[in-house]
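Supplementary Methods S3. Complex input for the fe (ii) ion-bound model.
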Amino acid sequence: MCEDELIPPQADMTEREWLRAGSETTAGGPSMRTTGRVPQWVNRRTLLGGAMAGAALTVLPSPAQSPASAAPRLGGPGAFPFPEHPNGKGEFAVLVTGDAGTGDEAQYAVAAAARDLCRTEGIGLAVGLGDNIYENGPESDDDSEFQDKFEKPNSGIDVPWLMVLGNHDCSGLIPGSGGDPSRGDREVAYAATSRRWYMPSRYYSVPLPAADPLVEFFAIDTIPWSSYVAQLDPHYRWDGPYMREQRSWLDGALRASRARWKVVIGHHPYLNNGKHGSAGSYDGFEIGNYTSGVHLKDMYENVVCGRADLILSGHDHTLQILEPTARTGGTRQVVCGASAKTEDGKAHFGHPAAWQNFSDNGFMVLKVSGARLTIDAYTVDVATRKATLAHRTHQTRPVAAPARTHA
Ligand SMILES: [Fe+2]
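Predicted complex, serialized as structure tokens:
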């Protein structure tokens, strides 16, 4: 069979089906099944309890070092500084946006509503979850679209923005295909001239505060694992050097992290109730190693689940705060991709959710203290540019213990 032959659509498993599949596997003894970081002879319910109670302490000989995992660096001249201390409420407050780069009225309205909250919530950092420049990404390192679809709408939100690449940022002839990853280098280059846009490399981590981190953000590039077309450049193939290096880096960086809370930020979600569906079955199609995100699913399950507290993603133009489950190893999936576009108003899948919205524009605010993670979801009325707090979720127990270095 041709490697990139079209495979008939396959539906994602529900949580119940996933659990049943696990129990059927365990009934016959140990399995060599390789997907999922959970050994199959460990009961998944038991694992969830263990993960939610906190994983065993990880002791490392030395933290992994990588140019992409350094402490926050300055961006362009006069770059807005990273917060070194919690705000007046004892929290690091982070604005979370996704799929915002249209330059249209809805983007301006969501940004205006968020801007109003920045002062009252003490927001010191922002996240852009990809599709930063619709439809095909920037044409150069200083494309005017950076101004029209990022700087102008977000004027006044004067904090560092942790940016990740979306499929629209890395597209060539076919808008949104993700078939031209090298175009993402332009967004990295742009960071050198912007006060807001932070993207020191295509994947990177940011610990806050840098000296003694309470929370660490791990920004990843999901595009070559989930593009709608096959990657033709060998460097960016799903099993090429770039993706192997990124996966190895993320594995080491999560293991080495000394932060109490760990947050992975990447454009494509692991689980998703919106129309695009979940990793491994995106849009119901599989073209060899691409389109469905089958290798991104494998990466999430083997590297991230049970080790990070949150996965923050966009891609679907919805607002979803899903529940941590056995399948996720206690990791919570959040989808926040409605900062300029909206979806079709209905759930397409049934992954357990604390709250979800498929109709409105909006954004979220992540608040981090030693005691808890809080996620506030806001919907925005575009006509009035006003935000409404629609839901608040707390979690108080980290999924995994921080690493400790030898004394
Ligand atoms: Fe997308």
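The longest helix spans residues 105-121. The radius of gyration is 20 Å.
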